[in-house]
Design a protein that fits this description.
By secondary structure, the protein is mainly alpha-helical. Helices cover 48% and strands 2% of the residues. It has one domain: Endonuclease III, domain 1, CATH 1.10.340.30. The protein has a two-stranded antiparallel sheet. α2 packs across α3 and α2 packs across α9. It starts with 13 loop residues before the first strand and ends in a 16-residue tail after the last helix.
């Protein structure tokens, strides 16, 4: 959520109809509000949860996050609740099944990347695992953003994470996508100062 639309440039938190201050994107509708309030920036647990966030962030590229959230139940069903071993074992029939599933985003490169990334996740287990690799790139210091102008689409840490994942065989893990992942799983807190979900 680091790079919002132009109309949100330079904005601080907005107070919704419920009287609660939120990041501007988090008050756009009920779907985004629930994600902002209940998930974004909060730690997740386990390999499958990390693979799900990584996969959804990759599928979001070029689309709105709201589109992905609306399709999320279909993604979970199509990808067997992001069971890493199951996805790693997908064959061409599974790929064709996914490409025929109108409930998800049907992009062959992204579908292939999801399978590639599950296999890379399995391969990482004897080297500490996906969760540990991502967590190693948590910034040592972080300055909370005051307005949307303070949000960064990528950071040195997200670039380093991108490089580490690519070296480990992952795909669709560019530094901007990895910064979005780091925001999503709480490695950085990009809730604006004054947002009710901001740390401190």
């Amino acid at each position: 959520m680091s790079a919002g639309p132009a109309k949100m440039r330079g904005m601080g938190p907005v107070v919704g109809e419920d009287g609660v201050a939120r990041c501007p994107w988090g008050d756009s509708d009920a779907v985004m509000r629930a994600y902002h309030d209940e998930e974004w920036g909060r730690p997740v647990q386990g390999e499958s949860a990390y693979l799900e966030r990584l996969t959804l962030e990759a599928f979001q590229s070029g689309l709105s996050w709201r589109t992905i959230l609306l399709k999320r139940p279909a993604f979970r069903m199509a990808f067997h609740d992001f069971d890493v071993d199951r996805i790693a074992a997908y064959d061409e029939r599974d790929v064709e099944r996914l490409m025929a599933d109108a409930g998800i985003v049907r992009n062959r490169m992204k579908v292939d990347a999801a399978v590639t990334n599950a296999r890379a996740t399995v391969a990482l287990r004897d080297r500490g695992g996906l969760v540990a690799l991502i967590e190693q790139h948590r910034p040592q210091t972080w300055t909370p953003p005051a307005t949307t102008d303070d949000l960064r689409p990528r950071t040195p840490e997200s670039l380093a994470l991108s490089k580490a994942l690519k070296k480990a065989g992952f795909a669709f893990v560019g530094p901007t996508t990895m910064h979005a992942l780091m925001e999503a799983v709480g490695l950085v807190d990009d809730h604006l100062i004054g947002c009710h979900r901001a740390a401190g």
